[in-house]
Fold this sequence. Notes:
The structure is a single chain. The protein has a two-stranded parallel sheet with strand order 1-2. It has 18 helices and two strands. It starts with 9 loop residues before the first strand and ends in a 6-residue tail after the last strand. It is an all-alpha fold.
Amino acid sequence: xxxxHSNIPIDIAYDKMTDWLIQRQWAKADYFKAxxxxxxxxxxxxxxxxxxxxxxxxxxxxxxxxQAVFDAVLEKNxxxxxxxxxxxxxxxxEWSTIITKFKANNLFIVDSSAILRQLVNFDxxxxxxxxxxxxxxxxxxxxxxxxxxxxxxxxxxxxxxxCFKLGIDPEADDxxxxxxxxxxxxxxxxSSVVQQLNTPAxxxxxxxxxxxxxxxxxxxxxxxxxxxxxLTELAEASDGSSLDDHVVRTKVLDELYELATFLERRCExxxxxxxxxxxxxxxxxxxxxxxxNAKHIQQLADSVNTISSRIACQETRQLLLIxxxxxxxxxxxxxxxxxxxxxxxxKRKLADLEYQRAEAxxxxxxxxxQIDTLVAHAKDLQAKLxxxxxxxxxxRPVNIMGKINEL
Length: 407
């Protein structure tokens, strides 16, 4: 009589299961390539999921979770099919394709076996190590005390440095008022911009630009206010208050950059130490053009760049934001206050080391349910894999052995 093996269990080590499946030709050795090819489709489909469905996927989603998503999408959209046999709903068809490809060559089984090994060998032990480190912290009060002392000093320095950088008193009673009042610096900044525009160097730079354009275009004369209207108008202003306007400020900066770029290009042309008169193109140019050299033109460019830097620098941008945005003021104040809050928090911790003990216990309490969740996930995956592998052998019982049974 032939012996009946249908009820003889199959024992498989959890960490050898992937090799076991490949050796018995239930899966391909390069199964991971098929998974990689499938990854973009999975990512695209997952990106379209509603939050309630997406939350059903773990850090390492398995085929069985994807199957549950497909079932939910199918239930929501219906199973209507086209004349060609595909699902009419695009989302349903996408997930159907994913499930089909997972089932090809038992990819879903071998991939799930790899995830199970990841959970048992790495993810769960990793969380347990975090919990163990928190247990060790309970014995490190002396070291923690030194850290807190250093932290208090550091937070104090950061708080003061932030205030000094802004130009406000670290001990100010009303930080919102102190930050808001910083905008009072803007009129002086804008006034200084107007003064700089009227310096001989900047005027010479603008005149040089106009003369150059006139010569190159064979024109008798080109007015500076035609080339640089925004700069001309601002230079004639009394206080520069028009720079408060974003549109005006942008035009002024554009023209400053235009002028500086022109000057720097001329410097590049003269970088060999020659004057413009030595270049054949400028032999017939006016003396105002011929007598220029790279060093002098660079000085003019520096004068122009100084103005644009003053307008576009971080300080000025920050002051403009303070003037125009209450939300920005609130954010700056919050950043300043956060340093003081951290300092106060550290002082409280230093005064009561028992609080640190409670915090360590809190971390332990947080890690424990996470570990339990992963263990439950691993056990569920173990059971599903036992069933699926058993199907390959006409329903024979399958025991997945090893460290997984010690979780």
